[in-house]
Design goal:
heterodimer; A: ABC transporter involved in vitamin B12 uptake, BtuC; two-stranded antiparallel sheet; 15 helices; B: alpha/beta; 5-stranded parallel β-sheet; 13 helices; globular
Chain lengths: ~350, ~450
């Protein structure tokens, strides 16, 4: 029982990342009809927003410490962050320590801007082209973006830790009556799950309860009619692309303490996220979220030693197996709409 | 007017005879002119540096390339000479190799076996490389080593830690200076026993590929021999990024020690996840929970940040060593590039020097002559103390470093501290040891 609870918890935070990326993918597909293979790269750029802010906050000037030697035997050069000079050592360290949460604010405008530039600069030219062309151009864009990041930040992972206050783990088992140390769960992963829930809820509320959202939903249902009513639906869809980019970016920002970001992290999530979108149902926002969490939990269960002992290798194929079964039984996915991707 | 005796048939006959006469010396000397693949005939000799320039190990590859460029500079008489000054063999004079200026070409392995073979093939066939060296993965090393054997050139492996490189996949034309999984296990076990006792329950997470298997086997056998119990050994996909679902069950298993048989990005992520789950703050079986990383790399440790603090592992070489060879290399490399070299850079530099020295001692670039000069060659002054290039399997035997993540690093390079220098004798094994059985060196190939 304890193992099952543990894997459900694990699956929820993994599913959070899948759901956030898949949500953005579905928003773009549902509004613009574009299959965006560069969406994983937006997740990666979001993570590197956190790295960048962390580097900005640790911008330093150098002082020479005559009492210590460097590796060549010369007096040691010590970097002193400017925030120490401005706010004092204690407050300065606290600001640096909170770089990742602060990056959420830093990343929102950047990611919206990146999304809008991507859509206006490249993707809009492919609206009327076949999906194969869209996939090729966005996949190429993803490779370009990751190589640009690698050029500036290197190929190695860059540690971007959570604030000291959120290090360690919660003994969840002890709270619900199990022995201590049996079901433990890192605080930051709990925060990640809560953060994902807030973002997903915010996007749904925005689409459901605002006039802007209502127009966008109407446009998703019948773009031509909305256009005939004199509404500039293209501009709204461009903004939605920016919002989808921000959702992926924020998922990346908050993911950095879980795994040190590297230039390839977007590709690691991309294929899985597409499976999530397909399983959820192309164009269905609730389907993307549901499938994200479902596949996250299933992937966790398939990684259990007891399961691998019975079916070796199941941990590597479980998501694709489930996708095949669901698509065979429900060809439009869990919550797919009739007519989407069926022309 | 006299009649000319010159006929068309006569001209053809004479031409054919003259052609044959002119060609005759070439026909009979062709064999000796190209006695082996890419025999250097001009004033230069070309080496092929096959390193990951793209992909996840690109930073390690960049450091390897820096070391190769430094080695070439030193071989051609430039710079301060680096470890040429401390090398026990004095065959190298700083005038290239056998008086020929050293040039180099580079290839990108991408840390993919097929790409690495393609780039090595291109350097051999198009650029005329006489020797191939480099790499940051055992899969690549084994693949390129086999290619070099077929092509008839020497392969001086870069960073490759799997037992198989000089075990079941060894080749007569291939040589490895870097240490291996068995040596890591043999060096780590006594240190772990001293630090954590002989009664431990270990849980292994192992990267699901060749290097992972040999490392798991080596660490398991050496720790079990000193009394540890292996509770479980779980394979993790090489593409895994989030290890939470593999780490979460560790405490439930009753294990008090986690061994991460991971390298590169896998190691960074699994260690980060394990520390996040607070494993190191827990007590199991009345003991503090411990994590072990059998193969450390400074470049990878940097990716894991503060998570490496206090965690034991092993490494082939570290820039903080105080022997004359290491100091000379660190001074040379640090002055040129502004930071200390990695273990990957060290082994690549040393391999280039060893190859050049062997050519000088053999008096020939012929691969089989070079191989003979390297086999059972004993040397010192290259940073690992007295070293033997064993002829039976082409593996170097030298001291192995047991290291620990430093508690209070003074710089971004100062991440590991040396806990023990394990003597070569303690990590030496029989060529027919069970972990190295299968395969044979075969015979050296000169190609042509």
């Amino acid at each position: 029982m304890d193992a099952i609870i543990l894997q459900i918890l694990n699956g929820l935070d993994k599913g959070s990342a899948y759901a956030l990326i898949a949500l953005g993918l579905t928003l773009i597909f549902g509004t613009l009809g574009v299959v965006n293979f560069a969406h994983g790269a937006l997740f990666m750029i979001g993570a590197f927003c956190a790295v960048t802010l962390s580097r900005i906050l640790t911008l330093s000037h150098t002082i020479i410490d005559e009492t210590q030697k460097d590796f060549l035997g010369n007096p040691l050069k010590v970097d002193v962050p400017y925030v120490h000079d401005i706010f004092g050592v204690s407050a300065g360290n606290a600001i640096i320590d909170w770089a990742v949460p602060l990056s959420v604010l830093f990343a929102i405008p950047i990611m919206i801007l990146v999304g809008v530039i991507m859509e206006r600069g490249l993707i809009k030219h492919f609206y009327k082209r076949p999906h194969a062309d869209q996939i090729l151009v966005t996949f190429g864009l993803a490779i370009v973006l990751q190589e640009v990041i690698k050029y500036f930040y290197g190929a190695n992972p860059i540690p971007t830790p959570a604030p000291e206050a959120f290090k360690g783990s919660l003994d969840f088992g002890a709270i619900i009556g199990f022995d201590p140390n049996i079901i433990i769960y890192p605080y930051w992963r709990i925060i990640y799950f809560a953060f994902a829930a807030v973002i997903i809820g915010g996007v749904f509320a925005f689409l459901q309860f605002t006039t802007f959202g209502m127009v966008v939903r109407a446009g998703m249902a019948d773009r031509e009619t909305v256009g005939l009513l004199g509404i500039n639906i293209d501009r709204r869809f461009t903004i939605m692309f920016g919002i989808a980019a921000a959702v992926a970016g924020l998922a990346g920002v908050m993911y950095t303490p879980i795994n040190s970001p590297n230039y390839h992290m977007g590709m690691d999530f991309l294929v899985l996220s597409f499976v999530v979108v397909v399983v959820g149902g192309m164009g269905s926002l609730p389907g993307a979220v549901l499938a994200g969490f479902l596949l996250g939990v299933l992937e966790s269960f398939a990684s259990m030693r007891e399961v691998i002992d019975i079916i070796p290798g199941i941990n590597q194929v479980i998501i694709y197996l489930v996708a095949i079964i669901i698509l065979l039984t429900r060809p439009r996915g869990l919550m797919g709409r009739k007519g989407v991707m069926e022309e | 007017m006299s009649k000319s005796d010159v006929s068309r048939r006569g001209v053809l006959k004479s031409g054919a005879l003259m052609g044959a006469g002119v060609a005759l010396p070439t026909i009979f000397t062709a064999q000796s002119a190209h006695a082996f693949t890419n025999e250097p005939t001009g004033s230069t000799v070309t080496l092929g540096f096959n390193v990951p320039q793209t992909g996840p190990y690109a930073d390690e590859g960049a450091d390897e390339l820096r070391a190769y460029q430094l080695a070439v500079e030193h071989l051609n008489g430039g710079g301060d000479g680096g470890m040429m000054n401390t090398f026990s063999s004095k065959a190298l004079k700083g005038n290239g190799i056998l008086g020929k200026e050293v040039k180099y070409v580079t290839g990108d392995t991408q840390t993919k076996s097929d790409a690495a073979r393609a780039s090595a093939k291109s350097m051999i066939e198009k650029d005329g490389a006489i020797m191939i060296t480099g790499g940051s993965s055992s899969g690549v090393a084994v693949a390129v080593q086999a290619l070099c054997q077929e092509a008839g050139v020497i392969f001086m492996a870069g960073l490759t830690h799997s037992n198989d490189t000089t075990g079941k996949d060894k080749r007569a034309n291939g040589f490895r200076h870097f240490f291996n999984s068995y040596m890591s296990g043999a060096a780590l076990a006594p240190v772990l026993k001293n630090a954590y006792g002989a009664d431990r329950k270990a849980y292994h997470l192992t990267a699901d590929y060749n290097w992972g298997y040999t490392t798991e086997e080596a660490v398991k056998s050496s720790t079990e021999a000193m009394g540890w119990e292996t509770v479980a050994a779980v394979k993790t996909p090489l593409t895994q990024t989030d290890f939470s679902s593999y780490i979460a069950p560790v405490l439930q298993s009753g294990a008090d020690t986690l061994v991460l048989n991971h390298y590169g990005g896998n190691m960074v992520n699994s260690l980060t996840n394990a520390v996040q789950f607070g494993l190191r703050d827990k007590q199991v079986n009345g003991k503090d929970f411990q994590i072990i990383v059998p193969l450390y790399s400074r470049l990878m440790a940097k990716g894991a940040g503060a998570n490496v603090k206090g965690i034991f592992g092993s490494t082939n070489w570290h820039w903080s060593l105080q022997d004359e060879g290491s100091k000379a290399f660190v001074r040379s490399f640090g002055t040129k590039y502004g930071f200390p070299p990695s273990q990957a850079a060290h082994t690549c530099y040393v391999q280039t020097m060893l190859y050049a020295d062997a050519v000088e001692r053999a008096g020939s670039f012929a691969p089989c002559a070079v191989a003979e000069a390297l086999e059972d060659f004993e040397f010192d002054g290259l940073g690992n103390g007295k070293t033997l290039y064993r002829g039976a399997d082409h593996q170097c035997f030298k001291d192995v470093l047991v290291v620990k993540g430093k508690e209070n690093p003074t710089s971004e390079f100062d991440l590991l501290e040396i806990v023990e220098v394990t003597p070569a004798a303690q990590v030496t094994y029989d060529p027919n040891h069970p972990q190295f059985q299968g395969g044979a060196l075969g015979t050296c190939n000169n190609g042509a």
